[in-house]
Amino acid sequence: MQSKTNQTEFVLGFHAAKEVLEAKQVVYQAYLQKGLTSKRMQNFIEQLNRARIPISEQSKKELDHYAMGMNHQGVILEVEPYVYQSVDFILNKAKEKQEDPFLIILNNIEDPHNLGSILRTADASGVHGVIIPKHRSASVTASVLKTSTGAAYHVPIARVTNLTQTIDDLKKKGVWVFGTDMKGQSLWEMDATLPLAIVIGNEGKGLSRRVKQHLDGMLTIPMRGHVQSLNASVAAALMMYEVYHRRSL
What are the recorded Gene Ontology BP terms (predicted)? Predict the structure, then answer.
């Protein structure tokens, strides 16, 4: 979904829009569907007025055009483009919290819904940041912002040119980097107290061979059923919550 000016982006839906406001992101305009008078909409309008954000009422047809088929719930915000952070920014965030770093690295995750879901869980489980490659990867779009319900504004995302070089740099800084694979060490046996980064691969192809060559080891999720693979966002969620649980003990 593209903005009208190519210098702004659209955020769709109540949840994502509220997260944008709470994160104090720059909002240029709010587009609201004409005729919606629910209590929810009235409260949202009051929130927009307090933030002094211009409101433009549009027909459902006009909002549908901007949303390009996505569910907008009668709410679209036009915001400044998403700002990616550096890997050092993420590591410093962990240091400021006096916590060992915990990062998620995505390898060949191209589905924006998977990226959005992973960001949502990352925010809930205390992940310090997510690293994605610039190429062959989903980036932060309106669809990702909606799926993440705005979590992208709370979890720093670094977008890197060379994923394997980034992995090597993390290892030099004392971060242990593990991948996910069916033949790895059990997730239940890992030391979650380490400075840690976990690489999640595409659910179809898994991790790339080149990325595997740069990892400290592989982790697997124990399963007892007939299906031996999980959706990338589900696998990532299990990994993240296992680390969160171990570090909370």
Answer: methylation; RNA processing
Residues 6 or more apart in contact with residue 23 via CB below 8 angstroms: 150, 153, 154
* pLDDT tens digits for range 70-82: 889 999 999 988 8
Residues 6 or more apart whose Cβ sits within 8 Å of residue 4: 78
Spatial contact of 186 and 220, defined as CB atoms under 8 Å apart: yes
**What is the 8-class DSSP label of residue 206?**
B
Count of residues for the chain? 249
CB atoms within 10 A of CB 139: 15
Class for the domain spanning 87-248: alpha beta
Instruction: Evaluate if pTM is beyond 0.90.
Output: no
Q: Which residue matches tokens 């007025």?
A: 49
Q: Could you tell me the residue ranges of all domains in the chain? A: 9-79, 87-248
Looking at residue 222, the DSSP 8-state letter turns out to be -
The CATH number of the domain covering residues in 9-79: 3.30.1330.30
Q: Which of 167, 173, 187, 180 is nearest to 100 (CA)?
A: 173
What distance in Å separates the CA atoms of residue 145 and residue 208, rounded to the nearest whole number?
Answer: 26
